[in-house]
Design goal:
Shape: globular
Largest sheet: 7 strands, parallel
Number of strands: 15
Strand content: 15-25%
Distance between the termini: 20 Å
Low-confidence stretches: 1-50, 59-65
Radius of gyration: 22 Å
Oligomer: single chain
Helix content: 25-40%
Mean pLDDT: 80
Strand order of the largest sheet: 7-6-5-8-9-10-15
Order of helices and strands: EEEEEHEEHEHEHEEEEHHHEHEH
Length: 301
């Protein structure tokens, strides 16, 4: 969709919207109601005619310019902060909800995020989700079986239902690759919690819910003021596994083989895949490691 005015020898800006992308999985029709917010576009024009000097004027145009506002759950964490940074770079309004609120590190993008301290189990969702066009959840963690079911499953289920109740049209969940593990190993609280969250999301958002299933995520991770360069190992390993994929593919049928053969994913690729899902209304479904990289490349290009 484009907004375009034409005048004699006019110089004018164009606004392009609505990039299309194919969804990897089909789902039935949704029951989501949402009224997007639109802005008034003001365009400055200038032109010249043979008998009249150069003339400039401004025209107010009602254009369908959708503004994006996202709420990132766990936005000051390793993955969450990368998503906030990538979204800000694309002009998206960002609100982060996390227990510790604003992070201790600095950056030009940090000041452009609205940092809210809170717990999803006790959140005042009416204050957080107002005007949001998407929610992105990075919630997850390790611990006892009960803790993992609570943070990976229950916390995300609560968040999905809150977003649905307040009319947020899209929800994006950062989940996890199953690593081709046998079923009895997938019964741990970590995996069962993640799959419970996925099931709830795809049930409530059948044609606008997005599940990203990365494997090992690498990048520069900040912990207690220190930076851990996970990319030193992750990046060369990703290149090696990608280069040898043709030869190792027959091993994929071996249970648990992906523990060694699933390529790591850059935290920036995860973040850009999220941005792609935010800006493209036609993106939904479950995304594998390879599909995450493909989605990220659409935003990077």
């Amino acid at each position: 969709m484009a907004a375009l005015l034409s005048t004699p020898q006019a110089t004018i800006s164009r606004l392009s919207l609505g990039k299309k992308a194919l969804s990897p999985l089909p789902f039935p029709s949704p029951s989501v109601s949402f009224r997007p917010s639109f802005n008034r576009l003001r365009i400055a024009c200038s032109y010249a005619t043979p008998d009249v000097g150069s003339t400039s004027f401004a025209i107010d145009v009602d254009a369908d310019v959708k503004t994006e506002k996202i709420v990132v759950l766990g936005g000051n964490g390793f993955v969450g902060s990368a998503i906030c940074k990538a979204a800000v770079s694309r002009g998206i309004e960002v609100v982060s909800l996390s227990r510790s609120g604003r992070p201790s590190y600095t950056g030009s993008w940090v000041d452009q995020v609205s940092w809210v301290a809170g717990d999803v189990f006790y959140a005042r969702w009416d204050e957080v989700l107002g005007g949001a066009t998407a929610v992105v959840s990075t919630l997850g963690g390790f611990g006892s079986e009960e803790q993992m079911k609570r943070i990976n499953g229950e916390a995300n289920v609560i968040s999905v239902n809150a977003a649905k109740e307040f009319g947020v049209p899209k929800f994006i969940l950062i989940s996890v690759h199953d690593y081709n593990l046998p079923p009895f190993l997938l019964n741990s609280g970590y995996f069962t919690g993640k799959r419970q969250a996925e099931s709830e999301l795809l049930s409530k958002y059948p044609t606008s819910g997005v599940v990203l299933r990365p494997g090992l995520i690498y990048g520069k991770r900040k912990v207690d003021g220190f930076e851990i360069p996970l990319d030193i190992v992750g990046e060369p390993l990703e290149r090696l596994l990608s280069a040898t994929e043709r030869f190792t593919r027959p091993l994929n049928s071996i249970p648990g083989s992906d523990l060694l053969l699933a390529p790591p994913v850059s935290v920036d690729d995860v973040a850009y895949a999220v941005v792609n899902a935010i800006i493209d209304d036609d993106v939904f479904g479950v995304f594998t490691i390879e599909q995450i990289k493909e989605a990220a490349a659409k935003v990077r290009s």
